[in-house]
Design goal:
The structure holds two protein chains of two kinds. By secondary structure, chain A is mostly helical. Chain A is built from ten helices and no strands. Chain A folds into two domains: about 5-85, Orthogonal Bundle (Rna Polymerase Sigma Factor, Chain: A), CATH 1.10.1740; about 95-184, Arc Repressor Mutant, subunit A. The longest helix of chain A has 26 residues, at about 160-184. The N and C termini of chain A lie far apart (about 55 Å). Chain B has helices at about 10-20, 30-75, 75-85, 90-115. By secondary structure, chain B is mostly helical. In chain B, helix 2 packs across helix 4. Classes of the chains: A mainly alpha, B mainly alpha.
């Protein structure tokens, strides 16, 4: 069944169609929520809130954008609301940076790709980035949204999206290289 | 001095590759089922509340309309009817319950089918 048909079915109150939509998009939502909220104990609850909002607001979806873009936008704003409620919006996980310094990685490029510790390290480094940076990194690389779509989702101008992406990459590269040098 | 493990191009390629990998945030396997169940419960609750308010509104509306009509037709009769009703409150309550039962079991189901 096509996505637009599924959306129409949900609008008519078909909860089975909604179950299918949830199953299809839960990875997208958990990636966004995970990267923004960070607290593993809260991820599932926030994901639930996102999908409940999707269900409640589905009549407002007019098909002007991709459905996944629309869901991502709801997820992003729900996460911000969640963080605002917890008054943590400007928080940066400083304690994780200390952990990063203690991690070691292999220096060979190919080994780095395959190494699980490097993946864990990257996850920590990404999670230590400021919120705007880790948001664009997630949307661009993990979900492969275009600059224009990221603008639609977050409300950041396209130029800001590009510069955030550039700065985030620069920080990540520097931190990853520093860590591998520490090992040397 | 180039202190990096690879060339810039290689490092960029490596970073791109790493960033595209799943970060490993997981939801339970029955997440969708659990969520839909929760939504169904919410919808049912909303429907019950709507039905209850509809019945309440209808009952209050009918009582007010009946009382108002009696009052405007004949004020003395209205007072008489009022005293009869207040003196036979068991009968009034029984009629009220019967009326609500009728609204809930018959009229609302008919209205739902018409929707």
């Amino acid at each position: 069944m096509q996505e637009s048909n599924l959306v129409d079915q949900v609008k008519k109150g078909n909860t089975n169609a909604f179950r299918f939509i949830v199953a299809t998009h839960q990875k997208l939502v958990v990636h966004i929520v995970g990267r923004i909220v960070l607290d593993h104990d809260e991820i599932q609850d926030v994901c639930q809130e996102v999908f409940i909002k999707v269900y409640q607001q589905i009549n407002e979806f007019r098909g002007e954008s991709r459905f996944s873009t629309w869901i991502a936008s709801i997820a992003y704003h729900q996460c911000l609301n969640h963080l605002r409620k917890k008054r943590r919006l400007n928080e940066i996980a400083y304690e994780e940076e200390a952990t990063i310094d203690n991690l070691t990685t292999d220096t060979s490029t190919e080994q780095i790709v395959e190494n699980n510790e490097t993946k864990r390290l990257l996850k920590l480094v990404v999670e230590s980035l400021p919120l705007a940076y880790r948001t664009v990194i997630t949307l661009f690389y993990l979900e492969e949204f275009s600059y224009a779509e990221i603008e639609q989702i977050t409300g950041m101008p396209e130029g800001t999206v590009k510069s955030n992406l550039f700065r985030a990459r620069a920080i990540l590269k520097e931190k990853l290289m520093n860590t591998s040098l520490n090992k040397r | 001095m180039d202190t990096k493990p690879g060339t810039n191009f290689e490092n960029d390629r490596l970073l791109d590759k790493l960033l595209m990998e799943d970060p490993g945030y997981l939801l339970p396997e029955d997440f969708a089922d659990h969520l839909v169940k929760k939504i169904r419960i919410q919808l049912s609750f909303k429907q019950y509340i709507t039905e209850f308010l509809t019945i309440l509104g209808a009952v209050i509306g009918i009582i007010v309309a009946f009382g108002g009509t009696c009052y405007f037709i004949n004020e003395e009769n209205f007072i008489e009817i009022k005293s009869i009703l207040f003196n036979n409150y068991t009968l009034v309550i029984a009629m009220f319950v019967l009326f609500i039962f009728f609204m809930d079991r018959v009229l609302l189901k008919m209205l739902n089918q018409l929707k």
